Structures are given as C-alpha cells and as structure tokens.
Amino acid sequence: MDRRTWLIIVAIIVVLTFGFGFRLYMMGRDISAENGGQTSSSGVATIGGPFDLVDQNGKARTEQDFRGEYMLVYFGYTYCPDVCPTELQAMSNAMDILPADIAKKVQPIFISVDPERDTVAAMADYVPHFYPRLLGLTGTLEQTTAAAKAYRVYYSKAFEEGEPKDSDTYLVDHSSFIYFMGPNGAYIRHFNYGETPEKIAEGIEKVVSNQG
C-alpha cells in the first residue's frame, strides 16, 4: 500500500469518526429538548450552587436555608418593564394551581440581577404584588453576580444610544428561565419563557408526587 492510499484511508476514518460523534451529540441535544429541559440519567446539569444574599425583610439567606424544600427560582429585576412581571405572575399562578400539600413544599424565589437599584426596600415593595410566599433576594453586586453565575444566568446593562453610562434609567438584558431545584439543591429542570402556569404546575406536581 503506497503512502497516498494510506493517507486517504486515514482521512476517511477521521471523517466517519467525527460524523458519528457529531450525530451522537445532536441526538443528545434532541433528547434534552424533548424532555423539556429535564436532566437525563447520563449526567448532571451544572446549574445551581451556593449563594449568600438577603431577602426583602433584611434577613440573610443562603442556599442552605432551603434544604428539604423545592425551590422555584427566577432571576430578574424590579425595573423590568414586561418579561419579569410576566414570568413572576406565571410562577405565582402556577403556585396557586398546585394542590396545597405540594405547594407548601415549594419555595418561590426571585433573585435580582440589578442590585444597584434593587435594594432591600425596593424588593419589599415589589414582591408582594405576586405570590404571598415569594422571596425577593438581593445583595451586593459581587453576591448577586456569584448567584447568577452559579445558575448560568446571562445579564447585561442596556443603555439607549447616547445615554450616559452612569444613568440609572438603563434596562437589563437577561436570560429568562424558571429553575426548579430539588430539596438537596440540585437542578431538576427549567421552564422556558412563555410557559403557561398550567404547564409549570404540571411539571412541578409530576416531580414532587414521584419524589415525595
């Protein structure tokens, strides 16, 4: 076998191997999408982790406070004109739909990505407009940044063209997922933006009923 023929054979093997691997990767993505964002038995999503924040009542809160409870977590900000109120209302309505024995096992949480404006007082004024047990968490910029990073949340200040960077009228572009976390703090699944309260409640009830 001459060198040219050998190189062609090697090239074909490389191409076939890459193609097979890529196909497996895409199949994994398709399965994840079909499962509505739930984790699979083959791996654990790296979403969630420690946080050190303060609630709307001025009480220090860490992830350890919620061990033994399910958490329904949304990241946003009080100045958000539409997306955040919509998603928080969907969360609240889902909590209302759930049977009482299941709802009491779930703690809804709203974490700020705009701590410079979302003070404890601002959160205390904001969260009562939604679910009675909704906790609003804020903190220093470093603390909220760490929490957002743990949950893989994207966010960035957005200024109008020509608006000074020290203006306090900015918006915040951010990802919009509702995270459902287990009693041990582990990620279970997420709900995408626009998911109906009925679907959110259905997803929560299915997990809690099966796991207890």
Automatic annotation (TrEMBL):
It holds the Pfam family SCO1-SenC. InterPro entries: SCO1/SenC, Thioredoxin-like_sf, Thioredoxin_domain. The keyword Transmembrane helix applies. CDD domains: SCO. The chain crosses the membrane at residues 6-25. Belongs to the SCO1/2 family. This is Electron transporter SenC. It comes from Thalassospira mesophila.
